[in-house]
Amino acid sequence: MGLTVKDAVLQALEQARGERLSGGRLAAQLGVSRAAVHKAIGALRSGGLAIDGVPGEGYRPEIETLMHQTIKKVGSDIEGLKMNTAIAQLMTLVNALYDNGGATKAEFETLVQLLNPFAPHMTEELWEKLGHTHAQQLAYYPWPSYDEAKCVEATVEIAVQVNGKVKARLTVPADITAEDAIAAAKAEPAVAAALEGKTLVKEIYVKGRLVNLAAKG
Asked: Pick from 153, 173, 170, 155: which is nearest to 213 by CA?
């Protein structure tokens, strides 16, 4: 049976919890709370996926944005001593891997690297199981890099309100213009029905969030 993300990360987080309880190690020094680790462990126990379940070497398009966002956030949170939010972001990534059927080798390796500050011994073992030699210790391996441009979502979900009531939700390009967003909103059947027979008096697009239409009559 292949090594699973669930089992590997669960063991790593258990180690982080143990180091928090015993004190003296990095996880304890940086203030990882037991509550945050327990929450992460609970989420992990809800499912599992095989490390070798997805072919390919790089990040898949459907997971690439979240990978770059996670690298950025975990690195920033560690520098800011915000360990609980770093763990929460890692759990968001793990859940996304569940939802996308597994992890490529590159995705799993990045996950292990990001977990290393919390559970150094366990992640070193996992690093070797991933094919790295003892001379390529994870502790001395470069921190994964991210591309700022790839941290931005390509699409966003926006709500469409008519007279303050949500009538529809749309997935649109993140860089959509106000004109196009409003046009797409008006084309929605539920929105068109709500506007039928009324005079449109105001139309507002709040970028990345909503289209607000006001009508009377």
From this structure: 170
pTM of the model: 0.62
Burial string for 128-154 (b: 16+ CB within 10 Å, else e) reads: eebebeeeeebeeeeebebeeebbeee
Predicted confidence (pLDDT) per residue in 128-171, tens digit: 877 887 777 888 888 999 998 888 877 888 999 999 999 999 98
Contacts of 156 (CB under 8 A, 6+ apart): 171, 172, 173, 174, 208
Neighbour count for residue 13 (Cβ, 10 Å): 28
Beta strand 155-162 pairing with 165-173: antiparallel
pLDDT tens-digit map of 26-72:
444 344 444 444 444 344 334 444 555 577 778 998 899 999 999 99
CA distances from 76 to 66, 151, 169 (A): 15, 14, 32
Q: How far is CA 16 from CA 33, 41, 118, 126, 216, in A?
A: 10, 11, 5, 15, 59
Start-to-end CA span in the chain (Å)? 66
How far is 23 from 12, CA to CA, in rounded Å? 16
